[in-house]
Amino acid sequence: MNIAINCPQCDAEVDLAEEDTVFRCRYCGSTLKPTGRNQVQSFFISPQETAQKIGKALVRALKAKNPKQLHIAEHHLLYAPYWRVTGMIFQWLFGRKYFRAPGGDKSWKDLKKLRATPWVHTFPAFDASKWGLFSLGLRVQALKIWPFNKQEMGNDSLLLKQTISFKEAIDHAQSSITKQGGSGSLQVHMATSELVGERYSLLYFPFYYYTLKSNGRKTVLIVDALSHKVIKGSVDIDELKTDSLGSKIPYKPLNFIPYNCPNCGWEFSFRPHTTIHFCKSCSRAWQEREGAYVAVSYKISLHDKPAKTHCKYLAFWRLTATIKTPDREYKTLTDFYDLFPLPRVLNQEAIRNRNISFYIPAFRIKNVIIVDKFAARLTQMQPTFAESELDSTEELDLSDIWLPLNEAKEMAHVLLYSMTKETHKKTKEVVKKAELQFMDTTLLCLPFMEKDFYLRETQTDLALQTNALDLD
Ligand SMILES: [Zn+2]
Ligand SMILES: [Zn+2]
């Protein structure tokens, strides 16, 4: 979905791809950062025709069926608010699948499966009990949206009141993603679904309201202003008129800030998907929050000879956490290896006092299954890295950062399932009930050597297929 905006520099009408974290005007070349994209924002969809034109066509069609005196007594452009939620669902399924072997025998086979699918969901943010159009469906995906602006929506247009709060919308979205189960050939014993990278917007969708009069009798019709179909719905128009929202904006529309380091003024590299920006000049990292840049601290685990060896530094969130269930807390590595055992003898003395760390890839991913496997292995190793804060990162090849911290926390929960073996009953029981309590969070860049389609982490020697990553 594209957001239609006027370039803040030259005023040309341009598009901003919904997922882009930086904007470059194709007319004047200015580069700016759209703000508030991690918060709720309000948009509207513009009708393509006028109420009069659609009304005339409607009256013509009705008269053809029933040739009576009929005219439009009143018409309005009306916007109804819908919640729109987008994100990526990560779903782990543990269970059994019924399958037919090559010889023709049928049997059950253990199954552990990770699915990652993009998710888009729209539902009314107003009282839709008397309304026939519950979801806007997929067609809105192809439409352009405009930042909420009452003047452009029409000063005399009416707005249906938003009655489903943001919190209620979150609950609704959560309950729709967790609805899952088996089918005839699939038995699910344990599952988790996590919505990651979710973005909530309030989308004002246009309708036309007509009061038709025929021999003194009144009828009300509501028409979808894009498809021009009559829909089932009823609105108290007098209440709407008095209960006007005026020009008050429900959620902040899009805004722009300079795409420069707030510390030294250096322009960041143009990376449309990165959420944390490294400054090449002063080596600080920044994230936009509520219209301003906030510093993000990060550490680098240097390879011995950084300048000569051409390492690629990939960023991970290292989250130190306690795994909590109603019966027990798993706090140290001794506890951790009790749940996720390694096939070798461990030095009990060395792990007794160490905390549990989760390693979540912060770079953009192409193949979720491969990267998930890597993250699970890295986390299961619980390595220790030599790390430092550098004054200059100019020489280093740092990967872009795509996954913000709050989403990394959701991914840590997914990782619990990734590390669990299908055959390990006790671990499954714990993971099912487990919650994570985070203590310390660090953005850590680890050095990888590239060789023969693989990136190899230099200290653990774990390898990752280069084409599983989506690096610029
Ligand atoms: Zn411009
Ligand atoms: Zn700087």
Can you tell me about this structure?
The chain is α+β, with helices and mostly antiparallel strands and 472 residues long. The chain folds into two domains: 51-142 and 149-242, no CATH class; 297-468, no CATH class. It contains ten helices and 24 strands. It has helices at residues 51-65, 150-153, 166-178, 237-242, 306-309, 333-339, 348-351, 368-381, 405-418, 425-433; strands spanning 2-6, 13-17, 23-24, 31-35, 41-44, 71-100, 106-124, 144-147, 158-159, 186-214, 217-224, 230-231, 255-258, 276-278, 285-289, 292-296, 298-300, 312-324, 329-330, 356-361, 397-398, 435-451, 454-457, 463-465. Strands 1, 2, 5, 6, 7, 8, 9, 10, 11 and 12 form a ten-stranded mixed sheet that branches. Strands 17, 18, 19, 20, 21, 22, 23 and 24 form an eight-stranded mixed sheet that branches. The longest helix has 15 residues, at 51-65. The radius of gyration is 27 Å and the shape is globular. The two termini are 22 Å apart. The relative contact order is 0.15. Bound molecules: zinc ion (ZN) (2 copies). Residues 7, 9-10, 12, 25, 27-28, 30 line the site of one zinc ion.
Topology:
Blueprint: E1 2-6, E2 13-17, E3 23-24, E4 31-35, E5 41-44, H1 51-65, E6 71-100, E7 106-124, E8 144-147, H2 150-153, E9 158-159, H3 166-178, E10 186-214, E11 217-224, E12 230-231, H4 237-242, E13 255-258, E14 276-278, E15 285-289, E16 292-296, E17 298-300, H5 306-309, E18 312-324, E19 329-330, H6 333-339, H7 348-351, E20 356-361, H8 368-381, E21 397-398, H9 405-418, H10 425-433, E22 435-451, E23 454-457, E24 463-465
